[in-house]
Amino acid sequence: MDRLLVLVRHGQSEWNLLNLFTGWKDPGLTEQGVAEATAAGEKLKALGLSFDVAYTSALSRAQRTCQIILDGIGQSDLTTIRDQALNERDYGELTGLNKDDARARWGEEQVHVWRRSFDVPPPGGESLKNTAERVLPYFKAEILPRVLKGERVLVAAHGNSLRALIMDLEGLSGDEIVARELATGVPIVYRLDADGGIVEKQVLAD
């Protein structure tokens, strides 16, 4: 039985390019982001992969990445489920700020804590721990059961919502997952056993 789960962070967004905290705001993909999503589809097609269902967030940068990938593998009409449970971490008062401006306002050390600690949220926003508390119940109720019964599932989402999934799948600590970098548009291919353990992992980087 092929228990396949593929995770992809969306391609570069307009706010990624500008070095802004994005969170739940909804900028589109840049040309580079479109190219990254296209390349992700080509890599998955080269492996001969196809899917039974796709999941993405309520944000357009993830949705467009998902659709570009599906177009690229010849599955343009695949059932795609969109849910804000898979949205990026909410950055609260940091949202829309350039990261350098945020450092000037709150200090480099404080901004670093907000960005890279597991459980300290920025003002009005979510920590990665909060994000995981939103993402993981949805994953375990809606997505993982489909993988475990043999469906092939694509998830196109965001750096921090995917970190929450990876933390759970790989059994990582909070400190370990905040140090994990996820490149835009790079598929991570997991094959799981009947209990959800990882049999094989491939990162389809260039």
Automatic annotation (TrEMBL):
It is an enzyme of class 5 (isomerase). It comes from the Bacteria. InterPro entries: His_Pase_superF_clade-1 (IPR013078), His_PPase_superfam (IPR029033), PG/BPGM_mutase_AS (IPR001345), Phosphogly_mut1 (IPR005952). Coiled coil: none annotated. Catalyzes the interconversion of 2-phosphoglycerate and 3-phosphoglycerate. Belongs to the phosphoglycerate mutase family. BPG-dependent PGAM subfamily. Homodimer. This is 2,3-bisphosphoglycerate-dependent phosphoglycerate mutase. The gene is gpmA.
